[in-house]
Amino acid sequence: MSVSIRQLKIFEATARLGRLTAAADDQAISQSAASQALKELESELGYPLFMRIGRELVITDAGRNALPKVGQILQALDSLMHSEADEISGVLRVAASVTIGSYLLPELLSQFIHKHPQVDPDVRISNTGEVISAVEKGQVHIGLIEGPATHNHLLITPWSEDQLAVFCRPDHPLAAVGKLTATQIAQQRWVLREHGSGTRAVFDAAVQQVCGQVKLALELNRQEAIKQSVKAGLGIGCLSALSIAEQVDAGELVVLHTPLELRRRFSLVSPPVEQSNALVRAFVEHLQQHAKAETVDK
């Protein structure tokens, strides 16, 4: 078998970026050369790595299984070129679900880059399901999610804790009472995150334990849209307490106590191979140190 490093790099870049043209640009070669490299690699391996559906390249099951092994090879090669004593540097690709990406990650990245100024962050923010998909496809080094999740091939490690809060506008009839009973939970109209988000998964699981189901007024994928909808009187909402703290302090929203169990864990998502990546290890240690500090403060 004669497999080249260039072929492996083109495969990894195509899987990560989703397009052959983008992979060719990433590796600074022509599209025809990238296409040829992929064909040669598939020929050497004896199985297809991608299927073409219309204009899209979709990774095959065999390609998905090969991807972490290829990543391990490329990381081993990189470690030969950089000693352990080298300063932490390089592109750190992170995917974060909305609450983490909006309210925690900016400060965490700022602190990390202050310690390691040679690190160049590349961040994407989406819901929990999309974060897991990005890690699975090798598009990012690590994912930060806020909902319960399992995966056969990825490591999902609890990292920190968060509390969801139920809230309404100040002139809502429930605001003066400050709480919701199980019966009232089922009666209210709710403005919630979309299915696939960690926030929605925690809320749905909690409701199942108390009253079975709720009346859905709106389903939105933006936290700001949910807050504005609640302010407009379209229903009551449920988001991370982190995301409504400013509005609660300003008296624009009121938190309601409920019998719902809305505590959840933030988790780190990574392929096993990333544990050998010095940059990723340093970032994970930074996150864990932050979580410990938060626990002590509480």
UniProtKB/TrEMBL annotation:
InterPro entries linked to this entry: LysR_HTH_N, LysR_subst-bd, WH-like_DNA-bd_sf, WH_DNA-bd_sf
Keywords, sorted A to Z: DNA-binding, Transcription, Transcription regulation
Keyword Transcription regulation carried by entry: yes
Question: Looking at the record's lineage, which domain of life comes first?
Answer: Bacteria
* Listed name of the protein: LysR family transcriptional regulator
Q: Which GO terms label this protein's molecular function in UniProt?
A: DNA-binding transcription factor activity; transcription cis-regulatory region binding
Q: What is an example of a Pfam family matching this protein?
A: LysR_substrate
Q: Which residues form the HTH lysR-type domain?
A: 3-60
